[in-house]
Design a protein that fits this description.
- Belongs to the HicA mRNA interferase family.
- One of its GO terms (molecular function) is hydrolase activity.
- InterPro entries: HicA_mRNA_interferase, HicA_sf.
- The model has no long low-confidence stretch (mean pLDDT 93).
- The chain has a single domain, classed as Hypothetical protein (Metal Transport, Frataxin, Chain A).
- Helices cover 35% and strands 29% of the residues.
Length: 62
């Protein structure tokens, strides 16, 4: 979640174990992130794709 904060996402709300992030600047994307210790690799790749990033771009943010 910290890597997504670097590109302009902030916590909008949370219900149970799902956090909704909102992108402050355009294109104002919304992402639903599970609040778990481990996230399945398919779920992680889907989150990366929805954020408009590639895997390499995410790694650079970390």
């Amino acid at each position: 979640m910290a890597a997504l904060a670097k590109i302009g996402f902030e916590k909008d709300r949370q219900k149970g174990s799902h956090i909704v992030l909102r992108q402050v600047e355009a294109p104002h994307r919304r992402l639903v992130i599970p609040d778990h210790d481990e996230v399945a690799k398919g779920t992680l790749r889907a989150i990366i794709k929805q954020a408009g990033l590639t895997v390499d771009e995410l790694i650079d943010l970390l």
